[in-house]
Amino acid sequence: MPIKFASVAAAFALLLGAGAVSADEGGHAGWQRQADNEIGNLPSLQRGARNFMAYCSGCHSLRFMRYSRLAEDLKIPDDQRDQFLVPASKKFTDYLVSSMPTKDAAEWFGRAPPDLSLVARSRGSDWIFNFLTSFYADPASRQTGVNNLQLPGTAMPHVLASVQGVQNAVWRNEEQPGPDGKPIATRVFEKFEPGVVGSMAPEQYDEFVRDTVNFLQYVGDPTQLEREGLGIWVVLFLLMFTGIAYMLKKEYWKDVR
Amino acid sequence: MSAVIEGKGGFRAWLNKRMPVDQFVADQLTGYYAPKNFNVWYFFGSLALLMFVMQIVTGIFVTMHFKPGDATAWDSVQRMVREVPYMWLIQPMHAVGASFFFIVVYLHMARAFLYGSYKAPRELLWLIGMLIYLALMAEAFMGYVLPFGNMSYWGAQVIINIFGTIPGIGPDLVEWIRGDYGIGDATLNRFFSLHVVALPFIIALLVALHLVALRQVGSNNPDGIEIKEKLGPDGKPIDGIPFHPYYTLKDIVGVGLFLTLFAIVLFFVPTFGGLFMESPNFEPANPVSTPEHIAPVWYFTPYYAILRAVPNQRIGALLMALSIMAFLFLPWLDRAKNKSMRYRGFASKVLLGTFFVAFLMLMWLGLKPADPLYVVLARICTALYFAFFILLPFVSRADGNGPVPERVTYHAH
């Protein structure tokens, strides 16, 4: 019986784990970093909300998030909510929709700025962190003068240039085997160099981005903390239930010879 | 066991005069004898029923807030999860539940392979089970399309287009399924109707038939010998025990263990690393933006890998259809006298083991991009998959006839 149980448990684990390994691969390039944000850190979430309102909300919407919900979850008092969070033209029960007309935005930027309600779920926190930290000066990009390592050719200008400054990318040339076996000269990213200086030191800027990413992760899954809090009790209850059910079963099965 | 309690007044007698409640309980539960040597593999039947009920109940609530239609579907799912009390729990329960339903069903099927539960006299039981599996695949596929995320859209595109490879009627058939020239409003509305009304009814009916057939032939067991052939003086099988209370109580333990695992995934890792909920599905359907890598959900990927293993699309689709249909012939392909793997030779065990590994490998490969190495692996696994069905008649006839014990193996504890 224990062997059988182990074999079923193994089969179960195999089925469960079949792609868990494959699911989260997406090969990290050397320059990429992890966001390391903490969803339980309330001050960080509040700072992230402030950053979002100051730098992102002009163009990007969170069309599934209401100001009221945001304030409630992030423990922002009503007076501060009305003073700092809700624009004069909006009610506190409104969704966080940017007032930029989509059609104009598409004309200005080449594409309309995407809604960011679920960006942390579709792209992941690390992706956003790397996107916001890897803008660099690129004269070849005539539209914005910058490019991005995480999303090359992005239509988004470096909105945070005043804070981060504009860094330069250092490349080296490397020969890599092409599809036909012949080496092809490839430009490989090496490191960033400080260029135009912004108002924040690099570590300070990382923290700034980390808070913003943290906020976006909250927006992507606002009930995560509540869910995990409830989950502990549900699992504990189920374990207790299983234990009692097992004892009851054992008692009855005594008669089976 | 006389079920109707004679001479007893009150509501129960009143009820039993008009409806055979006690008789039903006696026939189906307290008087239904099941082999006493079930092991953990036998949890998955009741767990599949549990998952069916859970999907129906959570589905009722999801349906209350869902708005089918290409312009409304995605938003309505996001809104219900964020704004309707406790839908942040119930909607993921339904989505994660689909994956767990298939985990349970695959293990339930694996059990039948291990102990020959599809063999006579249980061929019909197996066939009905296979029909449930087919209906469940259709149900899951449509349910996956309904939220209309980007992977819903592109996954549906791939799967519906498979029907386009059928010679002659293919293109018309695809249009008929979609109800339009592309996947859109008409497609979502009909999928909603089928997902919420037609298929659940069909599955419920098939589940009922599955249970009726099971009651007729009785459960198989890990030893694969018929307990009905060894009756005691009271006319009951010596190695049988009443389903209730013994197996109802044992199954509740299984339910507890299973729900614990389910809760751990649901509350702490609901997306399961992008396997139970895929990250492109957190973006709305977009016909002009293809996800980086399109793959169906994990429970379809073995067949998808077979489809992709063949360079010719039409032959690939044919092989894929065959790979599913092959299950239907299992009771007649297996020529062994003994049912259980316990009393079959080494060759049978190797053959079945290889099949299980090939199936799991295909499942994994179907999730991967079609890199050259993976394609080669998928071809090998496809060959092994079909080799099982081709070799089974010969191998099972050759080494499935050894001695079996008189009585089931059971150690009291």
Task: Tell me about this structure.
Chain A is an alpha+beta fold and 257 residues long. Chain A has a single domain (27-221), classed as Cytochrome c-like domain (Cytochrome Bc1 Complex, Chain D, domain 2). Chain A is 48% helix and 16% strand. Chain A has a two-stranded antiparallel sheet with strand order 1-2. In chain A, α3 crosses α10 (202-220) and α8 runs antiparallel to α10 (202-220). Chain A is extended. The model of chain A is unreliable at 18-27 (pLDDT under 50). Chain B is mainly alpha-helical. Chain B has 3 domains: 1-31, no CATH class; 35-294, Cytochrome Bc1 Complex, Chain C (Up-down Bundle); 297-404, Orthogonal Bundle (Helix Hairpins). Chain B contains 15 helices and 2 strands. A two-stranded antiparallel sheet of chain B has the order 1-2. The mean pLDDT of chain B is 94. At the A-B interface, α1, α2 and α11 of A face α4, α5, α10 and α14 of B.
What layout of secondary structure does this protein have?
The complex is a heterodimer of chains A (257) and B (413).
Chain A: H1 2-17, H2 20-23, H3 42-56, E1 62-66, H4 67-73, H5 78-85, E2 95-96, H6 102-109, H7 119-122, H8 125-133, E3 135-137, E4 146-148, H9 161-164, E5 165-177, E6 183-197, H10 202-220, H11 224-253
Antiparallel strand pairs in A: 1-2, 3-4, 5-6
Helix pairs in contact in A: 3-10, 8-10
Chain B: H1 10-18, H2 21-30, E1 33-35, H3 44-65, H4 73-83, H5 87-115, H6 123-145, H7 150-162, H8 170-178, H9 185-217, E2 240-242, H10 243-268, H11 301-309, H12 313-325, H13 330-333, H14 346-367, H15 372-399
Antiparallel strand pairs in B: 1-2
Helix pairs in contact in B: 3-5, 3-10, 4-5, 5-6, 5-10, 6-7, 6-9, 11-12, 11-14, 11-15, 14-15
